Task: structure prediction
Amino acid sequence: MSPQEVLDHTDRLRRSLGVDFRDRMVTSLYEESRRIAARAVRRHGESRWDFDQRIDRLVTSPAWGLPLMLLLLALVFWITIVGANYPSQWIARLLFSIESAGAGLFEAIGLPWWVTGLIWHGVWRSLAWVVSVMLPPMAIFFPLFTILEDLGYLPRVAFNLDWLFHKAGAHGKQALSMAMGFGCNAAGVISTRIIDSPRERLIAILTNNFVPCNGRFPTLIMLGTLFVGAAFPPALASVAAAGSVVAVVLIGAGFTLFVSWLLARTVLRGQASAFTLELPPYRRPSVLRILYTSLIDRTAFVLFRAAVISAPAGALIWTLGNIHASGASLAQHVAQFLDPFGRALGLDGVILLAYIIAIPANEIVVPTMLMVYTGAGMMTEAGSLEQVRAILVDARGWSLLTAVCLMLFSLLHNPCGTTIATIWKETRSARWTALGALMPLALAFLVTFLVASAARWLA
Amino acid sequence: MPGRDCAGCPAGGRLRPLGERRANFDYLVALAGNPNTGKSSIFNALTGLRQHVGNWPGKTVTRAEGGFSYGGVSFKLVDLPGTYSLLSASEDEEIARNFILFGRPDCTVVVMDATALERNLNLALQIIEITDKVVLCVNLMDEAARKGLEVDVGALARELGVPAVPTVARTKAGLAELVAIVGGVCRGEIPCRPKRPAVDGKLEEAVAQLVPMIEALAPGLPNARWVAFRLLDGDHRLRQALLAGELARLVSEQRAPAERGGRLLAIEGAQ
Result:
C-alpha cells in the first residue's frame, strides 16, 4: 500500500468516526487528567499562593504594570552606571600602565619599533579598551538581569506588553525573545523558537536587532554618562545617564513595534495568533546559580568573544594607523574618505570606519574608535572617562548631536556577524537573512540622517 | 566541587556526572515535561553540565545532551524542550515528540510540576500513549508544600501504572531515587504497565486497521498505534512525514543497536 493509499484509508476511517472525534479525544484526555489529579492531590489551605497572586495583581495591573517595568529597567541601568564608573577607571589605569611598562621593556631590549607598536599599542591597547569599557557594566548588569529572570519576572513583562505586540500584528512572546536579546541578539534570535507561527517568528527574528545587546550597552552607557550625564549637575548626572539609556531602549522598543507593524502589513501579512503563556510562580533566586549564569555564561562568554575579535582588530588598526602614504596614515585616508558621509549622519569618518571594522562583533566599536582617534603611540594614559571625554570633545569636536546620533546608530544599525549567521541558520533563507541585515542598516542611516539634518536646521 | 558527587544523596558517591562525554553509554534517557517544571535543573544536577536555567517557560528550545553514570552503568540524558502537549505542531513540540517516538529512549522521564499536577498530567498521559518505559518525576514538591498541596505520589504511580518519584531539583532531594528507578526501568527490572484510557470500540477498530499499514510503510516504527491515533486526528505534520517517506527515514536514522556499544558489559558491571 502506498502512503497516499494509507492516508486515503485514514480519511475514510476518520469520517466514519464522526466529526467530533478530535474533541472527544481531547476531552477524555482532560477528564482523565482531572480525575487522576483529584485522587493524587489534597489541598490544605492557601498560604503562599495568595501572596504570589497579590504581587501579580500589582505587577501585571493595567495601571501599574508598565510604569513598574520602566522603573525596574531604569533602576537596573542606574545601578550599572553608578557601579561601573570607578572599576572601569581602575581597570583602565592598570591595563594602560602595563602597556607603558611593556612597551618600555620592549624598547629597552632593542626590539624593532613596529613589534612594540603592533603588540602593545595595537593588540594590547585594543584588549585593554575592550576589558575596561565592557567588563564592569556587564558584571553588574548581567547579575541584575539574571535575578529578574530567576524571580520569574520576564513572563510578566511579556504579559504586560502583549497588547502592544498584538496591535502590531506580532506575537506576545516576542517580548521574551527581546528580553533574551538584551544579553545577545544571536541568543534572542534562537529563542524565537518559542513562537509557533512561522510568520510571527520571522517578525521576531527580523526585529530582534532593535534590542541593544550587551555588546552595544557599554557604548550606550559610556555615551550616556559622558554626554547626557555631563550636561546635568553632578547630583543628577547618573540618573540622567540612566534615563538616556532607558530612552534608547524605549526607542528601540518603539522601532521593534513599528517595524513589526510594517512587516505584518507588507511582506508578512497575517493575523496575530492567540497563545497561552504560563506565569510561573515567583521563585527565590539561587545566588550561586545567578553568579554562575551571569558571570560565566554571559559576562565571560561575551568578554572572551570580544577579546578574541578585538586582538586582530587592534593589530589591524595599528597597522592602518602606522602605514603612511602621502602625509597621512591609511586609517586617516579611509576616515577622510568616509567623513562627508559620516557627517551627513551626524557622525564622522572615524566612527564609520570603526563600525566597518567591528562588523564581526559590535563590542569593539568604542575601542576601535578610540584606537583610531588616539593614533600611533600617543595618549597611552587615556584611562578615565574624563580623558576619553577630552579625546572626543576637545580633540575631535564631538557634540551632543554626535553622541545622540551615535547612540541611535548603535541601536539601529545592522546586527553583528554572529547574529546574521544565526538568522541564516534559523530561517535558511538568503532573502530573510539579507532583509534582517540590511533593513536595520538602512533604518539607521535614515534615522541618523533625519536627526542630524533636523538638529542642524534648528541650530 | 559542591554537587559533583551528589554528596547530599542517600546513595552518596554513586552518582557520577559525565558532562558531555557521550561516546559510550549503556542507556538513553529522555527528559520530557511541561515548560518551567525544572527539567533543565534536573538535567544539570545529574550531568554536572550548566544548561541555562531560568524561571520562564520556553527556556530550553533545543535539545541538550549530557551523561551521568550510576552504579557503574552510564546513561545519556537528553533534555527535551518543555511542551504542554504533543498534539500541536510547533517546532519545540516536534523536537520533543520526534525524540520520544523515534529516538527510542530506554526510558522517558516526565518531569511534572507538583503544584499544577492536572495540567502536567495531560502531557504525561500523552507520553504513556507513545512509550511504556516512563518514569514520572514529580518535581517542585517543596513549592507544592508551601502552597498547602499534598501530593500522593504513590497514588499517581498506581493510576498511571508507571513508577513515580517525588523530587526537589533545587536541593537534589529524590534525585538518587529517581536515577535508581530509571536504571531499573532501563534494565527491565522495574515493570512499567501504563494504564491507557480505554477508547471507544469504533476508534479501536480503526486503529487496529491502520497499525499494520503504518508498520508496513515504516518497518521498525516503535509505536505505530500512536501514529495511527495521530493520523486519524488529522495531524498535518505526520501526514506529510508519511507521504515524504520521512517516517521510515527517521526510524532507520536512529542509532543502530551496534552503536550502543558495550551494553552487555555494562549490565554485568552493574549487577
Notes: Chain A touches chain B through 62 residues (CB under 8 Å). The longest strand of chain A covers residues 41-43.
